[in-house]
Amino acid sequence: MNNVASILSLAFLALTFLQSGYEKIFYWKDNVAWLKEHFAKTPLKNQVPLALLHLLILELISGILSVVGAIQLLTNSGREYGFYAGIFSCICLLMMLFGQRLAKDYDGARTIVIYFIPAVMVVNWLN
Fold first, then answer.
1. Helical ranges in the chain per DSSP H
2. Less Cβ around it within 10 Å: N or C end of the chain?
3. Which has the closest alpha carbon to 66: 5, 12, 121?
4. Which residues of 20-48 are buried (b: 16+ CB within 10 A; e: fewer)?
5. Long-range CB contact pairs, 89-98, < 8 A, 24+
C-alpha cells in the first residue's frame, strides 16, 4: 500500500466528477436553465448548452480515468491513468473557475479552489 494517498485522492476525484456528470445527464434541463440565468450577463449567455456539454464530457473522462487510475495503482502500481485523471480534473476545474469568475460569482470560484488542490496533488504525486 505505497499509494494510499493517491488512491484516496483518485477516489475523491472519481466521486466528484462521476456524481457531477450524473446530475448533468439526468437533470440537464434544470442545469441549463439555472446556468442560463447565472451567465445571463456574460459572453457565455448564448453558449450555455454547448459549454455544459463540453464540461460534461470532460467530467466523465476525469471520473472514469480516476477509477481506472485507482485500480491501476492497486493492481500494478501503474501511474499513467491516474496522472491523466489529475490533468483532466484540473482542466475541468479551471473551466469552472473561469466561468465563475466571468459570472462574478467569487464565492463559487473560491469553492472550486478546494477541489483544485487535491487534483493538483494527484498530478504532482503521479507525475
1. 4-26, 28-38, 48-76, 80-102, 106-126
2. N
3. 12
4. bbeebeeeeeebeeebeebbeeeebeeeb
5. 89/13, 89/16, 89/17, 89/62, 89/119, 89/122, 90/116, 90/119, 90/120, 90/123, 91/58, 91/62, 92/17, 92/55, 92/58, 92/59, 92/62, 93/119, 95/54, 95/55, 95/58, 96/55
**What is the rounded CA–CA span in Å between residue 51 and residue 57?**
10
Task: Pick the closest to residue 79 from 124, 120, 117 (CA basis).
Answer: 124
Q: What percent of the chain has pLDDT over 70?
A: 99
CA distances to 26, 33, 93 from 45, in Å: 22, 11, 20
Please write the tens of the pLDDT for every residue from 44-103: 999 999 999 999 999 999 999 999 999 999 999 999 999 999 999 999 999 999 999 999
- Residue 107 to residue 67: CA distance in whole angstroms: 29
- Please state the pTM of the whole predicted model: 0.93
